[in-house]
Write a structure and sequence with these properties.
heterodimer; A: two-stranded antiparallel sheet; 7 helices; 4 strands; B: 75 residues
């Protein structure tokens, strides 16, 4: 008797093929597509902004971007213009990656792979942020940028003093805790984003198997929920980066 | 008890206990947001944004537990 087949769920992205010894995974392929899309939208926006008669899509983008700007302004105050390019890039990259994973067909179109002599199937595309490698890279960039701006705004001595303060024992202990927190931040940043998006994809693929075929339209509200979660997680990631940037560029009290 | 059974029980316990804390937290966040709304109805927009952000942070704790449960279940 053939075994009942459940949904295809894999924690890590599967390697599709090797390119000069570099493993090209399905999530990497999706991220490349999203990056191309991101670049197209950016070129369109910059082209349209120079014209006198602008297209309607420009105004949609513009209102969205100004809404984002107003969200970061209470956190970063007068430094917002300086950091907005970084935070906006983070936001749109994460948002497009999250939503790309929800397009029907992404994650459900399978290809046959030969792995260790066995024939296995794997999805040809997988949402970029549903892979821990992507979110870990984003988290490391976020923390390194925070450190860089801490050094450049406060100077070497003043910034190091946050982690190594010999004025009294309590401050020394707090400094050590702050140092550990920097690494905990990388983990919490990456696992929050990965967990939310990966759990969403698992939810969407499991719900179909829980219900009879006739009731599969019940998955539709789930898509709405996942769209919302993707937006909120992109916002949370950038908002936290903004808060930590603001903490880094001001002197410790 | 064999390894498979222990894995399934471990996954269930991880997400089961891990969901308790965030559940309480989100309840508090919602109740306090409604209280703030009652006190100052003009600030609805900023209260909603702050509430959703805080709820997402509380939720992420549950997501950590869920990731552990999924790793136990599917590896």
């Amino acid at each position: 008797m053939p075994e009942a087949k459940g949904p295809h769920i894999s924690i890590k992205g599967e390697t599709l093929f090797d390119l000069f010894g570099f493993h090209v995974t399905n999530s990497f392929l999706a991220t490349i597509i999203v990056t191309g899309l991101f670049a197209l939208i950016a070129f369109y926006y910059s082209n349209e902004s120079k014209k006198t008669k602008k297209g309607p899509f420009y105004y949609v983008l513009n209102s969205f971007i100004s809404m984002l700007y107003n969200l970061y302004y209470p956190v970063l105050q007068t430094n917002t213009p300086m950091f907005f390019s970084l935070l906006g890039a983070f936001f749109f990259f994460i948002l497009l990656n999250n939503w790309f994973g929800l397009i029907p067909g992404v994650g459900s179109v399978l290809v046959k792979l030969v792995e260790h002599g066995k024939v296995e199937t794997a999805p040809i595309l997988r949402g970029g942020t549903a892979d821990l490698n992507t979110t870990l890279a984003l988290a490391i960039i976020s923390v390194l940028v925070t450190q860089y701006f801490g050094f450049s705004f406060l100077g070497f001595k003043s910034h190091i003093k946050k982690y190594l303060d010999f004025s009294n024992p309590v401050n020394l202990f707090v400094g050590v805790l702050e140092f550990i927190l920097e690494f905990a931040r990388i983990i919490s940043f990456s696992f929050r984003l990965f967990g939310n998006i990966f759990a969403g994809e698992v939810l969407l693929s499991v719900v179909i198997f829980l219900l009879p075929t006739l009731f599969s339209f019940f998955t539709f509200p789930m898509f709405g929920l996942e769209l919302f979660v993707g937006f909120v997680q992109a916002l949370v990631f950038t908002m936290l980066t903004a808060v930590f940037l603001d903490m880094a560029i001001h002197k410790a009290h | 008890m064999d390894v498979e059974a222990a894995k399934v029980i471990g996954a269930a316990v991880a997400i089961g206990i891990g969901a308790v804390g965030p559940g309480i937290a989100i309840g508090f966040i919602g109740s306090k947001a409604v209280e703030a709304l009652g006190r100052n109805p003009e600030a609805e927009g900023s209260i909603r944004t702050t509430m959703i952000l805080a709820a997402a942070f509380a939720e992420s704790v549950a997501i950590f537990a869920l990731v552990i449960a999924l790793i136990l279940k599917f590896t």
